[in-house]
Specification:
Layout: H1 2-17, E1 68-96, E2 112-144, E3 150-160, E4 163-173, E5 183-185, E6 190-200, H2 201-205, H3 210-218
Parallel strand pairs: 1-5
Antiparallel strand pairs: 1-2, 2-3, 3-4, 4-6
Amino acid sequence: MRQRLAILTSLLVAGCAMTTPGTSVHQPMSVRPVPPQPLARDDGAIYRADAARLALFEDRRARFVGDTLTVVLEERTNASKRTTSQANRKADVSVAVPTLTGLPGVPLQGAELAASSESTFDGGGNSAANNSFTGTLAVTVIEVYPNGNLLVSGEKQVTINQGTEFIRFSGVVNPINVGALNSVSSTRVADARIEYKGRGYLSEAQTMGWLQRFFLSASPF
């Protein structure tokens, strides 16, 4: 019984270690091209249809489902924010009771009352963010929209020793922005989703435990 429990535990641990990090990019991240319809052969004196790899008057730019293109990652963001606020309030009140005869409240006659209050508030905040992401990634056309735009998605997986890194990208590409080298800048991709995640003990060491995250979110202080 103990041996079976140990085997089951080891399998669960191994399964958790091999789990691929979740993603929010468009799915699927790869797709097979649609099989072309057979056409009647029209061989000429030099041109032979069965030996031609590309049409004579077409370039190599992606335009159909299953075609690939290169995305040049050129993401740079720089944002900063600074706020200050001040508020001051001061009030003084003075009351004097005159001396009168034949009225109730005789012990208070001739008394003087004074009150003052002051409130000061001073607050400020600073926030800054700088991000840079550069590189290249090949993606696959997974859908062609009616207007000709291309929905692309792709992933690059790199394993070094005990760590695995995933670079994922998806978005909508206008064929006009695809260059002669069948590449497009990430800054020209609409609805772009870029992810850089890792898997392995190095990545797990940088992740806060679930119990610690629970107390961090539930603590009122």
